[in-house]
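Design request, tokens follow.
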């Protein structure tokens, strides 16, 4: 039996115990599952309260059930939902009762969404948007993912693909009528204008590339510097909870500590690294090595210094470096000219002096870093790569028009093919598994 002919089920809500749990069933046997457990099918798309019973007639739970006949469902198949009390014993009994129905099996990660895609309910960009929406940590990420789920990129790609096919048809018609005098020229002129317009539109989208991907991945800020200058105290202040050990002894932090922040809607990962110094301790040496490697990959480095430390910032870092003089509460006066840093700040991480100014600067930096990501179309490397392929094929088609209509038409076919792959409508079996296996079970 083909996997698509099997009916799948899964817990689609959070981990038990919970107030309410939702078990979804999708496939040909979804209606049978409702009849088996409740005695009859409820009215389509109307919530019904029913007593669920197992095959032996023993009650399982009082539940709210829903019936969505295909194709008018989320997956395009028959779908049943059981809304039950979210205790472990209830779910164990319900899943056991469902699993014994013929041709019924537990769903794999992302299988409900994959069936939605295969049945034309979602294109691949919308499925990726759904995955991003599930994993969104901040409001800006949520809004971007929701736009993708609503077809922001998919609608544009479908429009581009249709226009490419129309231009290709004109060129191929010119080839067919090549012996009809000026007919080919009359057909080529509008085709070339259409290709130029498409080329320009995709160029504008690619010009904004990176912004939306940055918003999806987040900004990485590394807090680095010598030992015992207050790096752990600063990160605890930023997250308002003790995630790093604060101690007066040098070398307390031996590994890299990462925390996620929602900074005015921007996703920010803050890294507390081991103090960078020369040491004979092999464990601390490994911490210093990791600290240097992680700081080198960061998008921004906050280089912390003590109140009386030297003023030279590291010169090897490729990311912007902000020098942050800590423990200013121990100084009679502040005289801080930082060498080798992009910006300088003076704070007291323990008392809070200067922290509002540092946080506001981080928000400003995040806004510049993410740029116009919220309005961008491209959110993944896969999407960017396929748009580049379509863009390059359109460019080559314009260059080849004078050399031969056949060559230009072939490049247009390649551009349409790339956009078809972007939408997931042609030859994408190799990427489907990689995308949908990252989804939650039951989604």
């Amino acid at each position: 039996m083909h996997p698509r002919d099997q009916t799948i089920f899964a817990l689609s809500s959070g981990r038990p115990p919970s107030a309410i749990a939702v078990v979804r069933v999708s496939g040909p046997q979804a209606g049978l599952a409702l009849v088996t457990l409740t005695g009859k099918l409820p009215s389509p798309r109307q919530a019904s309260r029913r007593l669920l019973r197992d095959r032996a007639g023993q009650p399982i739970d009082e539940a709210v059930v829903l019936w969505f006949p295909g194709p008018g469902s989320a997956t395009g198949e028959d779908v049943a939902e059981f809304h039950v009390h979210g205790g472990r014993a209830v779910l164990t009994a319900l899943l056991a009762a469902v699993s014994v129905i013929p041709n019924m099996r537990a769903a794999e990660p992302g299988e409900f969404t994959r069936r939605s895609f295969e049945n034309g309910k979602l294109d691949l960009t919308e499925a990726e948007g759904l995955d991003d929406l599930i994993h969104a940590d901040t409001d800006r990420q949520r809004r971007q993912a929701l736009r993708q789920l609503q077809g922001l990129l998919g609608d544009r790609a479908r429009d581009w693909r249709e226009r490419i096919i129309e231009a290709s048809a004109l060129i191929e018609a010119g080839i067919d009528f090549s012996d009809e005098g000026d007919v080919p020229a009359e057909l080529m002129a509008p085709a070339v204008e259409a290709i130029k317009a498409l080329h320009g539109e995709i160029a504008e989208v690619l010009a904004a590339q990176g912004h939306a991907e940055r918003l999806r991945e987040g900004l990485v800020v590394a807090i680095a510097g010598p030992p015992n200058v207050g790096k752990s105290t600063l990160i605890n202040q930023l997250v308002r909870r003790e995630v790093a050990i604060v101690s007066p002894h040098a070398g307390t932090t031996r590994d890299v500590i990462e925390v996620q922040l929602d900074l005015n809607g921007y996703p920010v990962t803050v890294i507390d690294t081991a103090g960078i110094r020369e040491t004979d301790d092999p464990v601390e040496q490994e911490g210093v090595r990791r600290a240097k490697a992680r700081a080198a990959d960061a998008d921004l480095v906050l280089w912390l210094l003590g109140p009386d430390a030297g003023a030279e910032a590291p010169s090897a870092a490729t990311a912007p470096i902000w020098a942050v003089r800590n423990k200013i509460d121990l100084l009679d006066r502040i005289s801080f000219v930082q060498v080798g840093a992009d910006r300088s700040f003076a704070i007291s991480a323990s008392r809070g002096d200067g922290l509002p100014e540092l946080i506001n600067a981080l928000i400003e930096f995040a806004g510049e870093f993410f740029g116009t990501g919220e309005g961008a179309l491209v959110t993944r490397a896969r999407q960017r790569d396929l748009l580049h392929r379509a863009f390059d094929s359109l460019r080559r088609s314009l260059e080849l028009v004078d050399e031969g209509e056949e060559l230009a038409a072939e490049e247009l076919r390649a551009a349409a093919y790339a956009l078809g792959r972007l939408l997931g409508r042609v030859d994408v079996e190799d990427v489907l598994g990689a995308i949908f296996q990252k989804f939650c079970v039951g989604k």
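Comment from the thread starter after seeing the answer: thanks! The chain is about 45% helix and 15% strand.
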